[in-house]
Design brief:
13% strand; formyl-coa transferase, domain 3; 16 helices; alpha/beta; 401 residues
Amino acid sequence: MTLFKSLNDVRVLDLSLNMAGPTCGMILADLGADVIKVEHPERGDDTRSFPPSWDGKSVVFMACNRNKRSVGIDYKSEQGKAEALRLAASADVVIESFRPGTTDKLGLGYEDLKETNPQLIYCSISAFGRGEAGKGLPGYDPLIQAFSGIMASTGHPGQEPARVAASLIDLSTGLWAATGILAAINERVATGQGQLVEATLVDTGYALMCHQMAGFLANGTVPEPRGSASPITAPYEAFQTSDGWVMIAAGNDSLFHRLCDAIGRPELKTDDSFLKISDRTGNRRALHEQIEGVLLTDTAAAWIQKIGEAGVPIGPVNDVGDALAHPIAEERSTLQSTDDPGIPEDLRLVRMPLTSNGETAPAMRRPPELREHDDEVLGGEGDGGWNAAGLGTVAPSRSAA
């Protein structure tokens, strides 16, 4: 048994949209669950139309929806609601990411579904939760980055607020939701009962800013933009060389002393302005200028070798292409092809960042076409359209008519 088959007996109905919920569903699918993604029969998931695209298909959708099956259901129609209820009746997990109260109005809320399926684990993902203060507020990743203080503390001093390029709120919320579902599955083994699991984008934002918020509560300090630098220690930031940038993380006194020797500036070790970490953070700008003045005399590669040999943490500031071209990406099998022979080799996706007994997940199934699995899922009888061959065992894909 491997990690990637641990959920082979779990059935997941994924009603979610965009990135947080679909990421949660994809994690469960990567761990072996049979995940049926329910989409609007005409539009599909919003991310299907997001640029950029590969061969006419959105890579944003692809990145969050591998290893799933897709069906089209219109919840507002009587037939669609009946189909959704039939699937939910034999599901282990339902994931939804509508505005609070929406599924209740549709008759697809937790209270509705648990009447016929008391073992159901129902995961509700929203922006600000169900409370009065938050239930009506709109929420997308950048809005929560702005709300939670991330944007105000990201970027460079005196510049406009900066959004973190990675969709860290959505992706992290998906991780928290999956964690909650896995815990609820374990709890169900003991109790035989399902439960409502909730994950919100705003809780994720608060959690990501946990030590900055603790610092504010401790001494009233509001985190400010510092570029690549850290308020905790220095030098702990990016420096320019003659041909590019490097990141140096000399986080303690010993590492700082090694850095000073490696760049030929041993006198910095005894300079009163830089003796302790508190001195170096208080005089960070002056220290940065002293170090960078030396680093500008040689290339990034030369300094990475020289400073690295001194035992000081240093690395390149890569763009995405550089990061994927590094031998580490191949060594870690970062990119994986799909198991569909009709998909060219150049379509590869970033794998689940876990290994089991030293092995990565098996070849992934490509993200589904909209309504690709209508026939095999919605045409099923009795068992909610789930594959009769066994829980979590997905039948061969068939194109939608």
